[in-house]
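pipeline stage [seq->struct] | target=Acyl-CoA/acyl-ACP dehydrogenase | organism=Nannocystis radixulma | residues=397
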Amino acid sequence: MHFALTEPQREFKRRFDRLCGERIAPRAGEVDCRGTIPKESWTELAEAGYLALFHAPQWGGCSADGVTQGLAMESLARACASTFWSVSISTLLCGKMLSELCGPVQHERWLKPIVAGRVTGCFAATEDAAGSDPGSYRTTLFETRDGLRLRGEKSRISNAGTADVAVVLARRGDPTGVALCYVVVDLSRRGVQRRELPKLGLHGMSWGTLRFDDVEIAADEVIVDASVEKTLHVVEWGQLLQTWCAIGLASAALEACRDHVTSRLAFGRPIAHLELVYSRLADMHADLEAARLLALEVSWIKGEGRVARDLVFMAKIYATEMAVRVTDLAMRTFGGWGYSRERPIERLYRDSLANIPAGLPTDRLRELLACAMVGVDPWAYEPFDWLGPAGLRLDGQ
């Protein structure tokens, strides 16, 4: 599908590209080294309207169309992936959880401040022994004589160390039960503990664990309707986030690569004249454009409120794996400089790796796509003997 941008879309893109290029991108190396995102970046992005793109006017948003949202996400991810992740996890993923699942009380208390950039949010689902299988979650909301309490630990959570509020996926009443719910948790409450986890890329974004030691929860902070279907619908925004992050990173790598091959001399000429180099650039460019067009279509459909699940899955699979290929090829093209921190390529490569396993990993998305094609329930697994047919049982049975 070809997208002809409207004049308002082009004007927003010009203005936002300028902000990202002049203000956000020059800080990217320092963000990576220091492991923090400057407050001025949050302020500038809020003032530019980025945080408001994804929400309705009653919550301080501007209800931007999906194409504008996608273009903005690519621009910010191209400038600094850590900043993009942290800010977008807050306003897009946590914000959508609040807007689509919660009621007016939480909208006023948390969603409006998130859209305004006054507070930061996160979504806490995964645990040490539980990722894409919600049946493995053990964090529990239970009732005592003194009211509701939350107990458990979530791990590998983006913005864990910096967020003011978390939307937590938990079990109700029994850690082995089947009933799930969402709990909106004020992370300043007694009983909340945080711990940072070391990571390969996205150094500027906080990433770690949230532990809940019998944290007090009010009744209006619990959202009972937390089916797998509804969870997947909201989590699609996270997969779209990862898709655009990958596209932004690949775009930055291709741009850096193009500048390098036209200025780096070998045998008296720029290395761009080498067949290996220019054929590599052409492949990188084609891969990037294919991912961008698919992502624009997904963003357009999602922006209109229509169902786009299969396309979201396809876009995340293709774009996130494409970004790793493109940044890897860029590192090869830079030669030894590709592994130096004096060039941005090694950071772009490290950052690109996070998008593949984040949320639902791409291999799990392949399962979901294939199961939908053949009519199989991708969330139900019957027990079976893995080892017996191959003669590998060690217990003699």
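stage status: PASS
auto-comment: The longest strand covers residues 147-158. The chain has a mean pLDDT of 91.
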